[in-house]
């Protein structure tokens, strides 16, 4: 696993390495922050071209990672995340070009006004600056993060997982080539050249050098980042999502939405983990049966367990569990108020949904449930930047500050205030 | 100074106190977050009425603080910040009513779209939740913070300075009465009932209970808050602001802007601290002379010091100094590029301005200077939420995340995504 360490100079000081990378990133960010949209798009198109032209080299690098991963005993799921093939690589290149086609957020005017003294005031989007991204096994994150960072005018410092080190370097090389071809600074996309964990620590403490850290990975990674970071973190925590079946739900929609929200893909953060069924709803058993028929293990409270011998009794821990698996907890609640109280107590405030034909109840749910995404008669599996029309996403933020829910180009920007005067002084 | 401690039960555990206050704030925030605009405005009008009706009580409380402050040897400047009189109190009440008249940010739609599958997507503003505000001697902050918090639907936990403890309690009582009169939870505006510094520490670590901490005060306070906080902080650091006099500046505007930007009020964060003069500018001496005539001490680099025997030589530290006093550093630079390099190296990225009649140079300055506020032909003293039309401000943020520059009602909100479907499932 550490073969790459042999090819690097000894790491005297992780903080020095990160300080040097940060300084180069800052210089690159200054240029990228005022780069024309066409130049940024050209760099992305050139990078996508490189990803296709260098497919053999990238797939060979990936094969080395896969071989090392098998030797190290990675699970089949992890190996699948790590694996690239022609099709997946083409998809990565397509995604880079899709980002190049998105509207450039930099320079967009958020608001404009004229003050009584004649000063013109405007607020315009500017890049955040230097963005650190710490992620795990999927090599596509290297390309996604580089593309989103570049298009939003930010310099990025990428630190991928050790299991994907060769794949990440090969993909990174395509962006360096793309930046150079477009006449933009190659330092705008840097990859931390060591898997030494001290470098992660240094990145998390690089106040003034790095403007924001975005962790992408499992709970262990995110928790470590949040705990150690002195740089602000845009983090994604659990997706303990609820689907509430109201008394006024359409039974056919309820079944279809419950099965899709839970079972379409069980491993994504938008998957429903708990279904709440109004005591007054007419057909709870159909929901339970449909989930079981779809291969889902159902854990129910007393009322739900009484419906079917195939329901396991839920324990207290089930209501706070992100299964990320074909398991669902189902509880009976007393109407809207009961659902709201359960969601308040147990939701991770990622995505919660109601199924109802009663418009007033739906609007109350949308207003009163305080989650990043609140849905009416739609599957929680839609919680995704691409599905929301953002073109791509760097993650889904579960905090409340700066950005909430799917984060894409706009979430990678801040703003500044511009004042255009004619000599005004303050009285 | 600690007389108030005698009137309180012994503080067994600061963390317990803050946890209890936080839980009550969270419950209040839930109600306030969905309260109609009219109810919030009614509470503010009732609070303003109380501030006027209870003027004698509030001024008597302030007199106790002033007497204690004199005994404790507070400086004249601090005593002036602490002092209330009929006029100042009326101004505080007026400011509360001005906030009540501002547009309610909660529920405002930021964007809306319809997805190809027919789902309606919208993004609407919601309150941040529970806001902790830690501040120093000015008792008007109690009213400003309470009013802005309440109008933006947030519960606030206020922790003022010990020197203003009686004034703050009397002003806080007006808000409790106003909330109760409007039928809103009194716990929406809480004042930490002890000056024990352990309570500040507990507030800074109240993750999950408090959504954001806003420090208002001097560098010592802000630095402590940033260092200790585990809750996100919206902080205001230095205002090392620059006024760049370009070769194409109008000399009359240059003199007027330089004197106003530096001398109108020297103690505010929007005051200019360094003036940069283009080597090619025709009349640098007039700027130096006008500042000296206005009572300002001028510290110049070699070129500026050579202009007048009244200029002191600047030392290296002068270029990174927030004087907050009638002192200015003036340096000569080589045109736009020289000014940009100096600002990049020394600005605290609060407010920087250019004086020029050359529109192209002005636009380059606005685009390339990366500060929260960038101005053309206007005094840096305008860096203020009220002057920007925000109605009031809770502070000026010098960080890059969430909010930048003057922070008012909108900066105290986040957003959520609403999805209105008709049964859509994800393929």
Automatic annotation (TrEMBL), chains A, B:
<dbReference type="GO" id="GO:0005737">
    <property type="term" value="C:cytoplasm"/>
</dbReference>
<dbReference type="InterPro" id="IPR012134">
    <property type="entry name" value="Glu-5-SA_DH"/>
</dbReference>
<dbReference type="InterPro" id="IPR016162">
    <property type="entry name" value="Ald_DH_N"/>
</dbReference>
<keyword id="KW-0028">Amino-acid biosynthesis</keyword>
<comment type="function">
    <text>Catalyzes the NADPH-dependent reduction of L-glutamate 5-phosphate into L-glutamate 5-semialdehyde and phosphate. The product spontaneously undergoes cyclization to form 1-pyrroline-5-carboxylate.</text>
</comment>
<dbReference type="GO" id="GO:0004350">
    <property type="term" value="F:glutamate-5-semialdehyde dehydrogenase activity"/>
</dbReference>
<dbReference type="InterPro" id="IPR000965">
    <property type="entry name" value="GPR_dom"/>
</dbReference>
<protein>
    <recommendedName>
        <fullName>Gamma-glutamyl phosphate reductase</fullName>
        <ecNumber>1.2.1.41</ecNumber>
    </recommendedName>
</protein>
<keyword id="KW-0521">NADP</keyword>
<dbReference type="Pfam" id="PF00171">
    <property type="entry name" value="Aldedh"/>
</dbReference>
<dbReference type="InterPro" id="IPR015590">
    <property type="entry name" value="Aldehyde_DH_dom"/>
</dbReference>
<feature type="domain" description="Aldehyde dehydrogenase">
    <location>
        <begin position="17"/>
        <end position="281"/>
    </location>
</feature>
<dbReference type="InterPro" id="IPR020593">
    <property type="entry name" value="G-glutamylP_reductase_CS"/>
</dbReference>
<comment type="similarity">
    <text>Belongs to the gamma-glutamyl phosphate reductase family.</text>
</comment>
<dbReference type="GO" id="GO:0055129">
    <property type="term" value="P:L-proline biosynthetic process"/>
</dbReference>
<dbReference type="InterPro" id="IPR016161">
    <property type="entry name" value="Ald_DH/histidinol_DH"/>
</dbReference>
<keyword id="KW-0963">Cytoplasm</keyword>
<keyword id="KW-0560">Oxidoreductase</keyword>
<dbReference type="GO" id="GO:0050661">
    <property type="term" value="F:NADP binding"/>
</dbReference>
<keyword id="KW-0641">Proline biosynthesis</keyword>
<dbReference type="InterPro" id="IPR016163">
    <property type="entry name" value="Ald_DH_C"/>
</dbReference>
<comment type="pathway">
    <text>Amino-acid biosynthesis; L-proline biosynthesis; L-glutamate 5-semialdehyde from L-glutamate: step 2/2.</text>
</comment>
């Amino acid at each position: 696993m550490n073969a790459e360490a042999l090819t690097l100079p000894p790491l005297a000081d992780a903080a020095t390495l990160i300080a040097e990378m940060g300084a180069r990133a800052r210089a690159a960010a200054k240029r990228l922050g005022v780069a024309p949209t066409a130049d940024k798009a050209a760099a992305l198109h050139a990078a996508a071209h490189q990803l296709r032209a260098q497919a053999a080299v990238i797939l060979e690098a990936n094969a080395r990672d896969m071989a090392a991963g098998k030797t190290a005993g990675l699970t089949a799921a992890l190996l699948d995340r790590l694996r690239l093939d022609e099709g997946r690589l083409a998809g990565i290149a397509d995604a880079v070009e899709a980002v190049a086609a998105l509207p450039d957020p930099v320079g967009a005017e958020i608001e404009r006004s004229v003050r009584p003294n004649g000063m013109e005031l405007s607020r315009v989007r500017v890049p955040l600056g230097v963005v650190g991204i710490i992620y795990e096994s999927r090599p596509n994150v290297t390309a996604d993060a580089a593309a989103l960072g570049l298009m939003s005018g930010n310099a990025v410092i990428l630190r991928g997982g050790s299991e994907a080190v060769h794949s990440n370097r090969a993909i990174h090389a395509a962006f360096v080539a793309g930046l150079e071809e477009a006449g933009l600074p190659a330092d705008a996309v840097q990859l931390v050249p060591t898997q030494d964990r001290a470098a992660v620590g240094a990145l998390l403490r690089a106040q003034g050098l790095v403007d924001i850290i975005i962790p992408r990975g499992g709970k262990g990674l995110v928790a470590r980042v949040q705990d150690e970071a002195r740089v602000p973190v845009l983090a994604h925590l659990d997706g303990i999502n609820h689907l509430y079946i109201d008394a006024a739900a359409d039974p056919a929609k309820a079944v279809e939405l419950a099965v899709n929200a839970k079972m379409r893909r069980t491993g994504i953060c938008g998957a429903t983990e708990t279904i709440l069924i109004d005591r007054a709803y007419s057909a709870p058993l159909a929901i339970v049966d449909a989930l079981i028929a779809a291969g889902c293990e159902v854990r129910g409270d007393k009322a739900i367990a009484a419906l079917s011998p195939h329901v396991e009794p839920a324990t207290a821990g089930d209501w706070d569990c992100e299964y990320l698996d074909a398991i669902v907890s189902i509880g009976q609640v007393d109407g809207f108020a009961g659902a709201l109280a359960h969601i308040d107590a147990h939701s991770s405030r990622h995505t919660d949904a109601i199924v109802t034909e009663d418009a007033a109840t739906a609007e109350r749910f949308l207003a009163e449930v305080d989650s990043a995404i609140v849905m009416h008669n739609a599957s929680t599996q839609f919680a995704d930047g691409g599905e929301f029309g953002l073109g791509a996403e760097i993650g889904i933020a579960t905090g409340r500050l700066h950005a909430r829910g799917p984060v894409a180009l706009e979430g990678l920007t801040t703003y500044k205030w511009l004042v255009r005067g004619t000599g005004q002084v303050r009285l």
